[in-house]
């Protein structure tokens, strides 16, 4: 029995709304367009590959699908990338950032870079923006908040989604260069605290059916999540060419500065991207 | 309770697969052919056009290299008159246009790129 078309239309509309919600600030960001044509094709390919991997992980752990075979996850992820390409192309064209007088490389470059955040936004929108209850029969068994691969997958997704908004800007570098070392340390402490608070909150939300977690488990999750956030921050900085020719101290400072945004995303991601709904049983 | 995909979902998937394949194909093709050559800029001057008491000349800068050129400065001489133009970015294998103006009818125009940096 095929799914009714109206239901699919609704689902795509939710996805597109999510895509716009998360990517609009970046479609309006000059550094994004510039990065699109200044980083080489190899880096863009790595970026696309990473996006696809994040999409597949997100679709596996928090996606909308009733049954998640590997093929379905791939199909969904490719769909999300494709929709993101269309949406980004439309918006960039409307903003007069794409035109027939540009080289093919410039056009693909701009699209490839904008598609990263748009695709993740679409995936989140599809799964979370007011999905009908009965729709979401995904992997309940994977929905344990402290399940390690799930923790990392959802954390990465949230960290990228939030950190991408500030990663391409010059401000990260300016802050990293001008800040005092002890304040950078405080920023790192703040990131950790933020993660702990959100973990504590999400543990409350999950109480209706899950065992409460010991402080030791929480601390372990918080450290893992901060590590995920720092890795995402470093990857993004490398991707945008912010680490070229910088000394170790400046690199570490930039990673910590961007790490605040990434940590916020990684932890808040649990509340935003991964709502635990009351199970029907 | 497995539900099969309807025609719309297959259509969206097919279009998406083609689009994604195109982008990945183009990037891969590009990756194989790019050797990371530095920017290589060529200037082309258009015909002078008289407007608002000045003579405007169209300048086309073409970057044949594999690297984007940033903050490109161009200088154009017409006889003993000098004009200059700055263009923020000329992406690799692309071109950008600008105009320089002169007060007298341009003769014997000479153009050269003063300098640029890579992002």
Question: Quick summary of this structure?
Answer:
The complex is a heterodimer of chains A (281) and B (119). Chain A is mostly helical and 281 residues long.
Strand count, sense and barrel status of the largest sheet of chain A are:
none
Overall body shape of chain B: elongated
Strand segment tally of chain B: 7
What string gives the helices and strands of chain A in order?
HHHHHHHHHH
N-C termini distance of chain A:
25 Å
Low-confidence stretches of chain B: none
Question: Key terms for this structure?
Answer:
A: 281 residues, mainly alpha, 10 helices, disordered C terminus, B: 119 residues, alpha+beta, four-stranded antiparallel sheet, 1 helix, 47% strand
Fold blueprint:
The complex is a heterodimer of chains A (281) and B (119).
Chain A: H1 5-27, H2 30-38, H3 41-62, H4 70-94, H5 104-128, H6 148-163, H7 171-178, H8 181-205, H9 215-239, H10 248-272
Helix pairs in contact in A: 1-4, 1-5, 2-5, 3-4, 3-5, 3-6, 4-5, 6-9, 6-10, 7-10, 8-9, 8-10, 9-10
Chain B: H1 7-33, E1 41-45, E2 49-51, E3 54-63, E4 69-78, E5 81-90, E6 94-102, E7 109-117
Antiparallel strand pairs in B: 1-3, 2-3, 3-6, 4-5, 4-7
Structure description:
The complex is a heterodimer of chains A (281) and B (119). With 281 residues, chain A is mainly alpha-helical. Chain A is built from ten helices and no strands. Chain A has helices at 5-27, 30-38, 41-62, 70-94, 104-128, 148-163, 171-178, 181-205, 215-239, 248-272. The longest helix of chain A has 25 residues, at 70-94. The model of chain A is unreliable at 134-145 and 277-281 (pLDDT under 50). With 119 residues, chain B is α+β, with helices and mostly antiparallel strands. Chain B is built from one helix and seven strands, in the order αβββββββ. In chain B, strands 1, 2, 3 and 6 form a four-stranded antiparallel β-sheet that branches. In chain B, a hairpin with a 2-residue loop joins strand 2 (49-51) and strand 3 (54-63). The N and C termini of chain B lie far apart (53 Å). The model of chain B has no long low-confidence stretch (mean pLDDT 88). Chains A and B meet through helix 1, helix 2, helix 3, helix 4 and helix 5 of A and helix 1 of B.
């Amino acid at each position: 029995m095929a799914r009714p078309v109206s239901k699919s239309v609704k689902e795509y509309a939710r996805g597109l709304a999510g895509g716009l919600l998360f990517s609009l600030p970046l479609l309006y960001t000059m550094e994004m367009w510039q990065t699109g044509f200044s980083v080489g094709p190899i880096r863009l390919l790595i970026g696309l590959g990473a996006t696809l991997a994040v999409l597949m992980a997100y679709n596996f752990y928090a996606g909308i699908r009733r049954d998640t075979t590997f093929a379905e996850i791939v199909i969904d992820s490719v769909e999300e990338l494709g929709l993101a390409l269309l949406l980004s192309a439309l918006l960039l064209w409307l903003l007069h950032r794409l035109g027939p007088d540009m080289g093919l490389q410039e056009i693909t470059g701009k699209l490839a870079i904008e598609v990263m955040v748009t695709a993740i936004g679409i995936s989140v929108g599809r799964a979370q923006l007011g999905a009908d209850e009965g729709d979401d029969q995904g992997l309940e068994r994977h929905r344990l908040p402290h399940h390690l691969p799930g923790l990392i997958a959802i954390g990465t997704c949230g960290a990228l989604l939030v950190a991408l908004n500030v990663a391409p800007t010059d401000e990260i570098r300016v802050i990293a260069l001008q800040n005092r070392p002890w304040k950078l340390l405080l920023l790192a402490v703040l990131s950790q605290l933020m993660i702990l608070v959100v973990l504590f909150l999400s543990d409350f939300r999950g109480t209706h059916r899950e065992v409460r977690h010991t402080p030791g488990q929480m601390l372990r999750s918080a450290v893992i999540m901060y590590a995920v956030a720092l890795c995402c921050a470093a990857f993004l900085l490398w991707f945008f060419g912010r680490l070229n020719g910088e000394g170790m101290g400046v690199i570490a400072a930039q990673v910590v500065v961007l790490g605040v945004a990434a940590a916020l995303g990684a932890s808040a991601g649990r509340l935003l991207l991964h709502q635990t709904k009351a199970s029907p049983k | 309770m497995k539900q099969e995909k309807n025609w719309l979902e297959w259509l969206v998937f097919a279009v998406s697969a083609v689009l994604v394949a195109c982008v990945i194909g183009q990037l891969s093709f590009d990756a194989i052919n790019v050797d990371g050559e530095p920017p290589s800029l060529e200037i082309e001057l258009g015909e002078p056009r008289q407007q608002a008491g000045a003579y405007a000349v169209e300048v086309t800068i073409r970057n044949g290299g594999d690297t984007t050129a940033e903050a490109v400065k161009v200088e154009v001489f017409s006889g003993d008159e000098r004009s200059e133009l700055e263009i923020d970015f000329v992406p690799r294998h692309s071109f950008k246009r600008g105009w320089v103006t002169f007060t007298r009818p341009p003769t014997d125009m000479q153009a050269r790129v003063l300098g640029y940096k890579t992002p």
